[in-house]
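The aim of this short unit is practical: by the end, you should be able to scan a pair of folded records and say something sensible about each. We start with the first protein, listed as its amino acid sequence and then its structure tokens.
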Amino acid sequence: MSRILDSQKRIALVAHDNKKQDLLEWARFNRGTLSRHFLYATGTTGELLARELDLPVTRFLSGPLGGDQQIGAAIAEAKIDFLIFFWDPLEPQPHDPDIKALLRLSVLYNIPTACNRATADFIISSPLMQTEYRLDTPDLERPARLARHF
């Protein structure tokens, strides 16, 4: 199966507490590009981004209060086209299962996902950001085939 990502992408932006400043700096640097797309974010991150960039940001709940799950659901419903998630691999999070579920869904639904600034830079500067893009997605409605044993 596949779907077409419009030239105007729906971008989810998420950052752990000690990565929020990194995300804000990255977003400020890329404000011009981000302004041509639809922005979504979890609670505090969304508030900071909206104020810093003076752009509309659709906000979900805070990550620990269910925001990560809301973004995961939006990915599964094809309402988010790509994920920028600056997370801290050295800081344990009380909602770690939600974080892993969000990352699992971004991989399962084959959406571009950046977990650090370098990857986010490469994705946002790609010529594919300005065009339509055919995204292959899994056919999760089709029953899995059983392996044959000979």
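Turning to the second protein, read its sequence before its tokens, just as you did above.
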Amino acid sequence: MKTNNEHQATLKRLERFSRFTDSSIGIPFTKFKFGIEALIGILPGVGDIAGLALSTYVLFEAQRLGVGWGVKLRIIINMLVDFTV
């Protein structure tokens, strides 16, 4: 079982990862932000596989935290929807 400090460290890592993949790049003079995953997604095929690989990191961290199957199933469903759409 993870200690509270390890749990907090993992959550901070996931927050930084989320910011990097979803909102790390801002468009000047607007409030619009996007992340590296949007840039990678521009590449047909390769971008989808890279996005799936990035999403897999979140699933691994959820497993390490001992998250229940319901949450992990939602993560997997989101991964599959993102990959196929």
